[in-house]
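Minutes, project check-in
Item: structure for the 170-residue chain
Input as provided by the requester:
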Amino acid sequence: MNVLFHIAAGTAIIANSSKEETLSSKDQLTKTFTGFTLGVISHGILDYSPHCYPVNSKVDVIVSLIIIIALILLSQKVWKFIVGGTLFGCIFPDLVDLSPGMINSLFGMHLPTFPPVFPWHFPEYSGSIYSGDCDVSFVNHLLTLFVCGGMVWLNRKIFVKIFKRINIHS
């Protein structure tokens, strides 16, 4: 699945991270680890579901990188590591399994490639559709965006607190 959809899932995970006003260092570490783990799990679920690739891979990677950087920069100081860790977890399986091949393809390099580590990148478990019949993929992408958007909307108060850069109450 395109990275943008993995980032959407990561944003939903972040929006559901906490209801607390303050976080101790231990809470931050726990939430970062939990966010990373949920990011990897969500990646597997999305990649296992039937999907095509509606966004060009170069555009997908560039826009996703911009969104990741923006979300980290816009997050409150106490949340930066949590936001970064969660989003990193969402793209980690692709970085491990697919990035050497993509770098070779994009830049004409010859980095070594290895069999995938994550099972949803194995041909028999991947939901990638290459037949051109992408109707079910379209529905899955819409559902992904709808569910992730809904999760952010339902938790918009904490989402706004995480990404509110200026504390007007100080």
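Outcome recorded: Residues 166-170 have pLDDT under 50 and may be disordered.
No further action items on this chain.
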